[in-house]
Known about the structure:
It is a single chain. By secondary structure, the chain is an alpha+beta fold. It folds into three domains: about 15-25 and about 95-215, no CATH class; about 30-90; about 225-263. The protein has eight helices and eight strands. A five-stranded antiparallel sheet has the order 1-2-3-4-8, sandwiched between helices. Strands 5-6-7 form a three-stranded antiparallel sheet. α3 packs antiparallel against α4 (about 60-90) and α7 (about 230-245) runs antiparallel to α8 (about 250-260). The radius of gyration is 26 Å and the shape is elongated.
Amino acid sequence: MDLNFAETYAASLLADGERIIRNQRQHWFGLVFRWGLGIVLILVGVGLFIVGGWLPGDGFLGTIRSVAGIATLVVFVAGLAQMVFAYFEWENDRDVLTTRRIIQTSGFINRRAADSSLEKINDAILEQGVIGRIVGFGSLDVMTANVSGINKMRFLTTPVEFKKDMMEAKHALEMGVASGRFVDAPLRAEPIVTSSPMGSRSPEMQPAATYASTPTPPAPAVAVAPPAEDVTATLAKLAELRDKGVITAADYEAKKTELLSRI
């Protein structure tokens, strides 16, 4: 199986003009957690093997020894199969941050994708225990205005950086909507959950209703020049977003020209 399938699958879910900022799988500690059942089964198989070795090979105890040998093989194979299956699940489950939303993909036979738009995010709670701080993982609970969508992201690699990039992408998206740059962009009004077999493109991933489908007359307003300090701070923030790839160089130059023209 192509281990890059998870990355290509996430890329196939993108809308026009949408770009991936982060595409990462769970921390390796999450893989160990998934292996819990398989490890228990293998330990049980080892125990049965040891007990069977103590029993004599004839009589009633010999029958028990034969049964224990068969049970050892079954339990050991079941534990090994569970660990292999858990590995491929861990490899293909991804937490993806784009310029417009967060996407969680899961499964490697039957695929599932859940997403929440950045503009719907109200808050995000970051949790890191002692082991998480030492090893380098945490949980991020993204809260939105909708009952469905992204749940808690567990065993998240570099959770602090993920949250920072998410909030910066949300801010950049809100600035783009406010300035009218994303009027015709296919932003989603609701988070969407899709399922599809491996290798097929989900038919539900189509552009949803856009912002401002019909033009509205602008309200009369008095133009007030912003202070030079505010313009300088805004330009510095835009430059940081441009360097991180959240906005393009053309977007930066257009916004820079607009801000300077107001002074």
